Amino acid sequence: MLNTDISVIVPSYNGRKKLPKLLSAMEAQTIKGFELLIVVDGSTDDTVKYLSNYDSTKFGFKFITQENKGRSAVRNRGVKEAKGNLLIFFDDDMSPFKDAIAKHLQFHQTYKNAICGGNQIENPEDAISDFDRYRCHIRNKWNKPFKENTKLNKDNLHLTAANFSISKSLFQKLDGFDETLTDAEDICLAYNAFNQNIDVYFDPTIAAWHNDFCSCKKYILRRQEYNMAYQALSKKTNDNWVNKRIITISPIKHVILLVFSFPFLVKMIDENMFTFLPEKLRYKLYDVVITSLSTLYSNRSI
Fold first, then answer.
1. 90: three-class secondary structure by DSSP
2. 8 A C-beta contact, residue 163 and residue 90
3. Burial 42-61 (b: 16+ CB within 10 A, else e)
4. Residues 11/163, Cβ–Cβ less than 8 Å
5. How many Å apart are CA 41 and CA 179, to the nearest integer?
6. How many whole angstroms separate alpha carbon 137 and alpha carbon 129?
7. What are phi and psi of 3, to 5 degrees?
8. Around 268, how many Cα atoms within 13 Å sit in the side-chain half-sphere?
9. For the chain, is the Cβ count within 10 Å smaller at the N or the C terminus?
10. CA-closest candidate to residue 246, choices 257, 235, 259
């Protein structure tokens, strides 16, 4: 497969401040000559101006603009415009390691009919707040079971559209991303793949820094969106596998979560007011507050 057969697709919504790191990482890739498509999804910042004025002698790419249609539609639009046979997806807040595209290509040279998920990690050197360090901690916890390239099943599914690759023919066979979903579209794609006996792998060595440290408040709001998307996916599929991925709360835990469901705790976390506690206890507190306000008490204003 020639480098020109590779299309890298980057969806972007109000990504002006994030795109410079992404473009720098693309320029540094060990593989050259791939097609880079940035699809701007109705951004209201100066993303289009930035991309229009970008010095193309440094690194060439094509950008496309459309009205805001959401994460599934913007990625599907990128595929429609792509010329390559291998599709590699990165989000605009990612900085792929310099060998990421080469490793995605190597995977598909070995596995001809499969999906490859890469690693999305927060850089601890960029952590400023205690909550930033907590984000690094939970990412390491999620990734710990995966030491090498792993064929996944429905119980250990570990796929993010922020860093993954698939052949164009396979993507089209799966009908792309479900545009009726506002989130969890990557899990839905994997679900459809499993149902068609298409293998999904996770390779932790195909890594990208996730440049999206955020406040506890913003993180909880994001988790609320994700939880609602799983509810929608559950209704769409009516599948026990999807239902098992929705957080269920026992009566005892329900009471515990009630105690930690007060929005002022979120403010205290964002103001680093719990750093006097031991790390293990502190992070457990963060876990409980986040779970409480993103599931049972998501209607509370934070």
1. strand
2. yes
3. ebeeebeebbeebeeeeeeb
4. no
5. 14
6. 13
7. -60, -30
8. 16
9. N
10. 235
Q: Are strands 6-12 and 35-41 parallel, antiparallel or unpaired?
A: parallel
Each residue's pLDDT tens digit, 96-125: 999 999 999 999 999 989 999 999 998 888
Which residue shows structure tokens 């707040």? 129
**What would the DSSP string read from start to end of 158-214?**
---TTEEEEEHHHHHHTTSS-TT-SS-HHHHHHHHHHHTT-EEEEEEEEEEEE----
Angle at which helices 130-143 and 279-291 pack, to 10 degrees? 80
Longest CA–CA span in the chain (Å) reads: 61
CB 260, CB 302: distance < 8 Å: no
DSSP string for residues in 17-35: TTHHHHHHHHHT-SS-S-E
**184 Ramachandran zone, left/alpha/beta (phi>0; psi -120 to 50):** left
Query: Measuring CA to CA, which residue among 71, 193, 32 is closest to residue 8?
Result: 32
Taking alpha carbons only, the member of 227, 266, 217, 232 closest to residue 248 is 227
Report whether 129 contacts 270 (CB < 8 A). Answer: yes
Strand partners, 164: 89, 117
**Length of the chain measured in residues:** 302
Summarize pLDDT for 230-288 with one digit per residue, the tens.
777 777 776 666 665 555 666 777 777 888 889 999 999 999 999 999 999 999 999 99
DSSP letter at 263 equals H
Q: Which residues pair with 66 in a beta bridge?
A: 41
